[in-house]
């Protein structure tokens, strides 16, 4: 029975996967987040004690990290009720109050025609494969060999060759009894505008089959063998079975690999996908000869919540990255974004793999950047903000970006991120004003040679904030079960040092917080050496919460350190905002803000002196810097308020 177009979409919109699955499992309340539709339970398909079966109710998909079962509500009903597809649809439709459609003869006829067109494409695929292996395909085989693909690899990817003749494929198919209208409708041949015999679309080209999500060949991409050919790459025209803006090259294998934990990568072309997949990055896809479209973005997010966009490192690649950013902005949701990894200048993924092997690509993926970084770079690169008007122009540009984000929570966090980046760009140096070029430091540390460590010199381990951040990371790595409990607080904090911040972002992205998974994620983010150096910090060795195996003590310690980091972070931001405002309009309201910020920092100082923890003792008496207080006291005195509060 053929279902009319749109029926399954309507059924999915009315069906809650959590309710369907909830009849068969018991949700793990500690690991699940009902409000976000993020649910975990012991898998109903295999025996286990720990909950590794994950349901994403918003996207309508389930996946088991143990037995790798995956699917949607229909798949779940088919598997658990032992029924066929139509019967599973009928069960869900009855529950959703949706009437099953009557049999539509036209829909059945349309389905039959699509099946015949797919058969024609599969026949063309076999023809192109024979031509590659024949004598006329020697040049094409040499090209593939030069790109590192042997005969076995060509067979795995069903690569082929279209000979340099006007009707080679057309004559082959008609000789097999394929009707002319099917050859034309499949996009394999076209008629001359002035009439005459149809001719082949692909001639003297190496050929890449394009498959739909079910793995069926529906079209082809061809690369010209003649360097003087006007079109280096050519795709099949759009047909009844092929819409290039709604498909991805290598979709089905990439979806399977991503389901097993591989990172999802979007590359630029066919050969990039093949090279990356052959090097072990099996979850790699590519758009089909055009800029990525909104439907393709939605396909990516159905496979993985945060695909990595791998583009060439030249100017064109950067422009392409920003086009993807602009397309994605209105579509962002909680837990659904993109990361960008730009190749070294002049290299594509194939070049990078040849030069450095898979490890080089892993380094590029580990250094991938979030969307907010690219937006900030575009807004500030090459600009000088040495006047109020120029800063106001930057603010207007950032507000325009925020205005394009539809999701309220995502918009709020982007606003916080822009505020933080703006703070770092314009923060003053003690009592001095910023120079507007991003070189100012909020605290001008001791001069070199005084023997005191600068606040920004985190490697020395003498900065209290650095110590606290290290403790937080170490506690999560040793007690990963605490991650879901403190996830919201951790997500609100930006660590001062880039490496530690990347480590924390990697931990927050871990789907199943277990010791091995957490450590692997951090190693990928900052490298093995950096992680070992972090965990070798001397203050960690004597911290009771890390020396023992008491999760309650670890949770208490983690809560205390997060509270102090959050308080300090908020006080610093309030201070800088007040300093910027006071330069424009020094009134009592603004000075009140300054005094409150001063009081917050003083309170933090008193807490440090009154309740010296094991962390500070391990750091040989490290204390908060006094520069903030001195600068504030001086500023308050100059505008008519006493330095004491």
TrEMBL record:
<dbReference type="GO" id="GO:0003677">
    <property type="term" value="F:DNA binding"/>
</dbReference>
<dbReference type="InterPro" id="IPR006171">
    <property type="entry name" value="TOPRIM_dom"/>
</dbReference>
<dbReference type="InterPro" id="IPR037068">
    <property type="entry name" value="DNA_primase_core_N_sf"/>
</dbReference>
<keyword id="KW-0479">Metal-binding</keyword>
<comment type="function">
    <text>RNA polymerase that catalyzes the synthesis of short RNA molecules used as primers for DNA polymerase during DNA replication.</text>
</comment>
<dbReference type="Pfam" id="PF01807">
    <property type="entry name" value="Zn_ribbon_DnaG"/>
</dbReference>
<keyword id="KW-0235">DNA replication</keyword>
<keyword id="KW-0863">Zinc-finger</keyword>
<feature type="zinc finger region" description="CHC2-type">
    <location>
        <begin position="43"/>
        <end position="67"/>
    </location>
</feature>
<dbReference type="GO" id="GO:0000428">
    <property type="term" value="C:DNA-directed RNA polymerase complex"/>
</dbReference>
<dbReference type="GO" id="GO:0005737">
    <property type="term" value="C:cytoplasm"/>
</dbReference>
<keyword id="KW-0808">Transferase</keyword>
<dbReference type="GO" id="GO:0006269">
    <property type="term" value="P:DNA replication, synthesis of primer"/>
</dbReference>
<dbReference type="InterPro" id="IPR036977">
    <property type="entry name" value="DNA_primase_Znf_CHC2"/>
</dbReference>
<dbReference type="InterPro" id="IPR002694">
    <property type="entry name" value="Znf_CHC2"/>
</dbReference>
<dbReference type="InterPro" id="IPR013264">
    <property type="entry name" value="DNAG_N"/>
</dbReference>
<dbReference type="InterPro" id="IPR034151">
    <property type="entry name" value="TOPRIM_DnaG_bac"/>
</dbReference>
<dbReference type="GO" id="GO:0008270">
    <property type="term" value="F:zinc ion binding"/>
</dbReference>
<keyword id="KW-0639">Primosome</keyword>
<feature type="compositionally biased region" description="Basic and acidic residues">
    <location>
        <begin position="429"/>
        <end position="438"/>
    </location>
</feature>
<dbReference type="Pfam" id="PF13662">
    <property type="entry name" value="Toprim_4"/>
</dbReference>
<dbReference type="GO" id="GO:0003899">
    <property type="term" value="F:DNA-directed RNA polymerase activity"/>
</dbReference>
<dbReference type="GO" id="GO:1990077">
    <property type="term" value="C:primosome complex"/>
</dbReference>
<protein>
    <recommendedName>
        <fullName>DNA primase</fullName>
        <ecNumber>2.7.7.101</ecNumber>
    </recommendedName>
</protein>
<keyword id="KW-0460">Magnesium</keyword>
<dbReference type="InterPro" id="IPR030846">
    <property type="entry name" value="DnaG_bac"/>
</dbReference>
<comment type="similarity">
    <text>Belongs to the DnaG primase family.</text>
</comment>
<keyword id="KW-0238">DNA-binding</keyword>
<keyword id="KW-0548">Nucleotidyltransferase</keyword>
<feature type="domain" description="Toprim">
    <location>
        <begin position="262"/>
        <end position="344"/>
    </location>
</feature>
<dbReference type="InterPro" id="IPR050219">
    <property type="entry name" value="DnaG_primase"/>
</dbReference>
<keyword id="KW-0804">Transcription</keyword>
<comment type="subunit">
    <text>Monomer. Interacts with DnaB.</text>
</comment>
<keyword id="KW-0862">Zinc</keyword>
<dbReference type="InterPro" id="IPR006295">
    <property type="entry name" value="DNA_primase_DnaG"/>
</dbReference>
<dbReference type="Pfam" id="PF08275">
    <property type="entry name" value="DNAG_N"/>
</dbReference>
<keyword id="KW-0240">DNA-directed RNA polymerase</keyword>
<feature type="region of interest" description="Disordered">
    <location>
        <begin position="429"/>
        <end position="456"/>
    </location>
</feature>
